[in-house]
Amino acid sequence: MIITKQKSLDEILGMMEGKKSVFIVGCGECATTCRTGGEKEAAEMSAKLIEKGKTVTGSVIITAPCLELDTRRVLRQNKDAIEKTEAILVLACGAGTQSVAEAAICNVYPGCDSLFLGNVFRHQHFYEKCSTCGECVIGYYGGICPVTRCSKSLLNGPCGGSMQGKCEVDNKKECAWIMIYERMKKTNSLDNLTKVFPAKNHSAGTSPGMVINAGIRG
Amino acid sequence: MNLFKEAFDKKDFVVTAEIPPPKGSNVIPSLEIAKKVLGKVDGVNVTDNQRGIMRMCPLAFSHLLKEMGHNPIMQVCTRDRNRLALQSDMLGASALGIENICIMTGDHPKLGNHPDAKPVFDLDSVQLTKAIKELKKGVNMAGKKLDGAPEFFIGGVINPFFEPVELELIKLRKKIAAGAEFFQTQPFFERESLDKFIEQVKGIDTKFLIGISPLKSVKMIDFMNEKVLNKKIPDAIKKRIEASENQTEEGIKIAAEFIRAIRGLVKGIHIMPIGIESYLPHMLEEAGL
Q: How much is the ipTM here?
C-alpha cells in the first residue's frame, strides 16, 4: 500500500490561502490504514478547518481514489456540494489526489505527503521494501532488495559505513547488505554474491510509468 | 610514466597523504601545505566532497597539485554524479594529466552539509571501477569506442573493521576483479587490529596502503568512537592524549610512533590528517619520512 503522512495544518492552510470553502475527500484503503485519510481523520480535518474559519461544504471517503472512474462517479454524486466549494482537500496519496484533480474543475490540494510503497508489519508499522524500479533483482540477493533497502542502492556489497549492523544514514535501520549476507549464508548461496553485478538499467523505471494491457478483458 | 604507481616497485615504503580541496575558491592555504610535503610523499589524495561536505571539485585541485609536481590521487565517489558525469570527468582528468584515481561509494548526503541533496549512486564503487577499466581499454559504458583511451592507476578503499569481515572481503575481491590495483584502508590505531587485517588479506594479490590518522584531541576521539569507527580507539591512547599538555602534538607523536613501528611490516601508509592538514609536514618529520 501507499504510506502517507498528513501535512501540517499550517502547510495546508498556506496552500489554500484565500480559499474560503473546502470539500474534503478521503481514501477508504491506504490512507484509512495509515490513519491519514479515513472517516475519522476527515472529520477531524473538517473540525480544524472550521476552527480556522473555513466553510466545509462536505466530505466523502472514496473507497480507492486511485481508481479514476470510480472517483469521477463519486464526485458526480457529490456535485451539489462540490459546485459550492472553492477548494478540495484530498486526504490520500498523490495518486489519489491527482485522480480527484483530474475529475474536478476547482482547485485540488493534497492533505498528505506520500512516503513510500509500504509493507504493513503490524498495526501502524510500515516498511519500504520495494521501490518499483522496473527491473526486479531480488532473486540475486536472497529475496532482499538492495535497491530499496540499502540507502545507497548498492548492488555489489556494503558501503562500509554501517555501525553495529545499522545503516549509516539512520541507526534505527538495519544494513540491508548484512541482512543479504546473513540470509545467503544460511542458504549456502554466498557464491552468488561474489560476481560483479552490472550497473542498473534505470531506463526500466523511467517516470511517468504507463502500462496498457491491450486484449486483456475484465 | 606514473611515479606513484612506480613507487610500489621502487620503494620499500610508499607514503600517501590526504589534502582536501578548499571550502571556497581560495586555494592558497591548501597549496601551501602541499608545497611543504613536495618530494616527501609519493601521492596526494584529493578528496571528493568527503563526508558530504561541499568543497572545490577534486578534478581542479588535483590538476593544481599536478602542476606543482605532485602525483595526485583523485578520489571519486559515486554519490554526486551519474555514469555520464563520472566517465566524462575521467576523460577530463586524463586531459589534465591526472593518472591516479581512488574510487569509493561516498557518505550519504544526509550526513553532510547539504542533507536535502538528491543522492545519485547511479553506479556503485565496483561498477565505477569496472567502467574506468573499460575506459582504459578505449570503450565507454555504452559500448562505444573512445577517440583516445585514458591511462589510470585505479585504487579503492577498504574498511577492515566492517563486520562481518567476510562480506567486506567479498567486496574487496570484486573491486580487484573489476580493476582496482591498490587499496587505501580506514585508519588503524593499534597493532593488534593491523596484524589481524594482514592475516585476513593474506593471499589476496593487491597493494595496501594502511590508513593513519593523527588524533588531534580527546574530543575527536570521542567523535570518531561514536560516529565513525566500528572498532573503538584504545583507551590507553585516549588517556595518553588526555594527560598531555598539547593534545594535538601528542596525537601526532602517537601516530608517528605507530608509523615507525609498522614500517617494514606493510607496503605503505596513507595519512589522513583530518582537520590538521597544516601539521602534515611536521608529522612526516616526526615519523622519519
A: 0.94
